[in-house]
Each structure stands twice: as structure tokens, then as C-alpha cells.
Write a structure and sequence with these properties.
alpha/beta; 8-stranded mixed beta sheet; two-stranded antiparallel ribbon; 8 helices; 19% strand; globular
Length: 334
């Protein structure tokens, strides 16, 4: 669990849901890994999470990981939906069962076969396509191949690593998807810090302070998506958005503030100021300290000053005085 375990799994999950709801998150997609000839991994955990969510409005749905043969995917997904699909906390759009994807790029014909098989079995699906292509560029031609195979599109992450900005890629998804009446779910992806704490890997697509998260929110405010997806996985050591090893609680406040702006909710009473910097840098790297002003109703003027100190606390450099201001239609100042 995100919080220290109480020894009671249901109670731990409920605590997680409470933390998520406090920052404006309404549900989780659980990664469901399926290989040919094997039962779906983590389906049991999803069932337990649904049990924990009972009596609340928090939603729990599946996110399909890996690409088994269509007939096996139909078999396992049908089994999951028989056990979980009619639970009151399972997400549905109309009569369709919401199913997100992490592994998307199988053939369009395969997805059509899966959709038809699920409908035949009595479980029509509302399919969310992960159209992100990692380090490769997404084009209109690629999206067009999948027209009619999904109801909603998003990208799990990596958008700024393919040569385009998040706004460019998401605008393309919305524009091309609308031709087949597909809707848009914008991601918020903070970066990836690797799994150093347990030695599984040490590579990373680096966090760049607030910039990457705010670039995604800029796209959200421009495109007005129907849903937002916070991309995070293996929260104990890789990409936590909730208060854990690398979060220290600040992310929850920022997430809630920006989600409230997307939902056009009232401003909080007081302005808030946050700072971000890398935990470590290679010698010779320019040290970059970011400031983020989230304005409140009081519209208080803020002045930022400071200095850099050496390991024993002696000032070695005075930072320039900054007076951040929010102007025009901006939701924040960075």
C-alpha cells in the first residue's frame, strides 16, 4: 500500500482511496498482465480492491498489459468481467464495461475480434487505446488504421521523447479520433526515476521538476479532455504521484489544485508556492531551481529570495529576487 500497512489489506486499500480522493482522483485502473495459456495476473487484486471500495464512489477498472492471442484475451477478460463487471464500483459508460490498455499495438483486426467476442459473450467493452508509441512518432495514418476499434484514446507516457510536445501529440489524437467519434483522455506523466531502491533497474527518463507535469496540464487546459489519467506504476520505487519516497506530499496539493482548475471549481482561499530541484546532479550540470505559484482568492503578492549554501551551511551564492505573477488566462506562474 501507499501508506504503511495496517495489517488489514482492505483497510490499506481504503486508505489509498482516501488519499487519492483528497487530490481529486476518482478511481484506479489496475494493471492486468495476461499471457497465452495463463490466467490474468493481478485480477484477484482488482477484485479485492473492488471489495474495499464498496460503500464509496471510488471506481476500480482493468488496464490490459501484454498482447495474448485474441481468443485468450477474450477468455480471460470475460472471466474477469463475470466476476467484477457488475460490481457497483466497476466503471461503465452506458451499457459498456470500461477497459483501458497499456499494450495497444496489435493489429486493428485483432482488436475488432476481441470487441466482437466480448459483445457476443454479453460484455460489450468501452475500450481506451494507449496510442502513445514510446520513442516513435505518432502519425495521423497510424491512428486512422485503428478508427472504430476504440471509444477513447490516451498515451501512457514518453510523449516528449518522440520529437513532439505533449500538446502536439494529444491534439493529433483528439483531431483524428474525433473522425470516428472517439474521445480523449489526457495523461499526466511526471517522468520515471527507475527502480533503484530494490535493484531492478537503474535507467530513467528523468523527472524535470514541475515542467513535465505542467506541460501535460497546459495541454489539458487547451484541449479540454473528457477524462484525465495520472500515469504511475510500481509506486513503491518508480513513479509515485501520491506521497511516498519521492513525493513528500507536495504532488497531492499540486494535483488537486490543477484538477480543480480543469473542473472549473472555485479557487482556494490562499495562494501556495512550491519549489522543485533535482535530488542529485552530475558535476558541471547547471543547477536549476523551479518555483511554482498557485494563486488563491487572496491574490497575495509573493516575493522569493534565497541563497545557496555549502555542506556546512555557509552561504556561497545569493539567488536573484523573483516576484512571480499570474497573468491573462494562466492557471499558475512558473
Amino acid at each position: 500500500p501507499v501508506v504503511k500497512s495496517s495489517g488489514n489489506q482492505l483497510a490499506d486499500y481504503r486508505k489509498e482511496f482516501e488519499i487519492a480522493k483528497k487530490q481529486g482522483i476518482h478511481g484506479f485502473f489496475v494493471d492486468i498482465i495476461t499471457y497465452d495459456g495463463h490466467g490474468a495476473h493481478y485480477a484477484a487484486q482488482m477484485k479485492t480492491m473492488l471489495k474495499a471500495a464498496e460503500g464509496t464512489d471510488f471506481l476500480i477498472g482493468p488496464c490490459l498489459d501484454r498482447s495474448p492471442k485474441p481468443e485468450w484475451q477474450i477468455k480471460e477478460l470475460t472471466r474477469i468481467l463475470k466476476e467484477c463487471g457488475n460490481h457497483p464500483n466497476y466503471p461503465k459508460v452506458g451499457n459498456k464495461y470500461v477497459v483501458a490498455t497499456y499494450s495497444w499495438y496489435r493489429s486493428p483486426e485483432s482488436w475488432q475480434e476481441i470487441r466482437e467476442g466480448m459483445a457476443k459473450n454479453g460484455y460489450p467493452i468501452y475500450l481506451i487505446a494507449n496510442l502513445g508509441r514510446g520513442y516513435k512518432k505518432l502519425t495521423a495514418d497510424i491512428i486512422a488504421k485503428y478508427a472504430g476499434t476504440y471509444e477513447m484514446a490516451y498515451a501512457f507516457g514518453y510523449l516528449s521523447l518522440c520529437g513532439n510536445t505533449p500538446l502536439d501529440v494529444l491534439k493529433l489524437m483528439k483531431q483524428e479520433g474525433s473522425k470516428s467519434n472517439a474521445r480523449l483522455m489526457c495523461p499526466v506523466w511526471p517522468g520515471y526515476v527507475g527502480a533503484w531502491m530494490n535493484g531492478r533497474n537503474d535507467y530513467y527518463q528523468p523527472h524535470i521538476g514541475f515542467d513535465q507535469v505542467l506541460d501535460y496540464f497546459d495541454a489539458i487546459f487547451t484541449l479540454s479532455p473528457d477524462w484525465i489519467h495520472f500515469t504511475t506504476w510500481n509506486d513503491h520505487d518508480e513513479t509515485p504521484l501520491m506521497p511516498m519516497s519521492f513525493g513528500f506530499g507536495g504532488n497531492t496539493l499540486i494535483n488537486r489544485y490543477l484538477l480543480d482548475r480543469w473542473r472549473n471549481l472555485p479557487l482556494p482561499s490562499n495562494s501556495q508556492m512550491f519549489f522543485a530541484y533535482h535530488r542529485e546532479e552530475i558535476i558541471g550540470t547547471v543547477l536549476r531551481i523551479e518555483g511554482l505559484l498557485l494563486p488563491g482568492k487572496n491574490k497575495a503578492k509573493v516575493t522569493v529570495s534565497g541563497y545557496l549554501a555549502n555542506p556546512v551551511g555557509k552561504p556561497v551564492y545569493k539567488l536573484p529576487v523573483m516576484k512571480p505573477q499570474v497573468s491573462g488566462d494562466s492557471k499558475y506562474s512558473r
